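Re: weekly structure request thread

Next one in the queue (440 aa):
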Amino acid sequence: MSSAAPRPADQDHLWSVDEHLEDILATVRPLEPIELQLLDAQGCVLVEDVTVPVSLPPFDNSSMDGYAVRVADVAGASEEFPAVLDVVGDVAAGQAELLHVGPGQAARIMTGAPLPPGAETVVPVEWTDGGLGEGPVSGMRARSLAPEGAEGHVHVYRSAEARAHVRAQGSDVRAGDRALDAGTVLGPPQIALLAAIGRGTVRVRPRPRVVVMSTGSELVQPDESLGIGQIYDSNSFALTAAARDAGAIAYRVGAVADDAETLRSTIEDQLVRADLVVTTGGVSVGAYDVVKEALSSVADEDEPGSGVDFRKLAMQPGKPQGFGTIGPDHTPLLALPGNPVSSYVSFELFVRPAIRTLMGLDYVHRPRTRATLTAKKALTSPKGRRQFLRGAYADGSVAPVGGAGSHLVAALAQADALIVVPEDVESVEPGAEVEVVLLG
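Done, posted below.
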């Protein structure tokens, strides 16, 4: 989970964004691999190459409903001069005993069924009379309704080349091929491939369990009535959704009141199901910033290196941050600011990479690109701070969305990018090229 300890606190040090992130990623370690059932492994990262034990398909089979025949028996066939063949029976998918197709014979064959011995090709049923003697048909009658269709004669109106409409053994993958590389994230197509080659379990790094909690006595849950001075708790919902989007199994804890002992006990109770804890709110310098109060002295004397360091970062929004490890397993904890935009930007910059690191991914960051700034006026930024502004990105251009206030959550819902203004830049003119973090 985590092995290295966070850097020791230095209250006078103004951390850069890169220093804070480096400290987090130097502390967080990928989770230990486990063996999981296929569906439980969805979203997890493979830790070993997977080799194909059996070819796909494992045998030559038909790609059409039709008739398995010999090429010579249908050569030159036409509607005027059809080939007339004896039907020797049916070949269905999953059938164990196969018919033999000899000269002048045909076997009615279903999609996915093995090509029977003696047959060299498949003619689709639409090229035949289906055994009815009434010209070309559009399909086969169900065997339960017309079992006699597997007997008698069939008229074939077109010729077929060798192995037409036949899926060759190993045409998908061959035994001994590498099916999936270590480091692959298992989505539905990868799970389908694993099942198709007979793998019921797979060795992966599990999805991290992330516990998200917000703090503040003013917070009320959605669907409840607001009292004087109260607001709805949106941060815990946003961050839980963001953690799931990053690949984690996320648990949302209801807002905790501004009481240090209550918060401390709540966090301790949650450690049993947490590979990472994320709090939001209570990390600034106010009299009721209880996260700092509760966690600044949480270091376990019996667990050297544990504890949470609260620091100031040279960024906007998101200046106050906390990071450390807690509990007997040194579970990483990231304490984010309480303003909605500060909280979400901090998550994208610091928590998401931590989650992706726990998963064992090679690249843990959101993609970045360069874009042309489209704005009515120049963007301003405080000197010495790296600013992250919400933006809408399209076709190589990015436009600011909403103002710079860290409480403006409505504008956040319209943004799909963050515009990055470096520490040494105080103004960015329209038309300038800027760095952009792509959020979706």
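The first strand starts at residue 14 and ends at 15. Residues 215 and 256 are 5 Å apart (CA to CA).
Next request, please.
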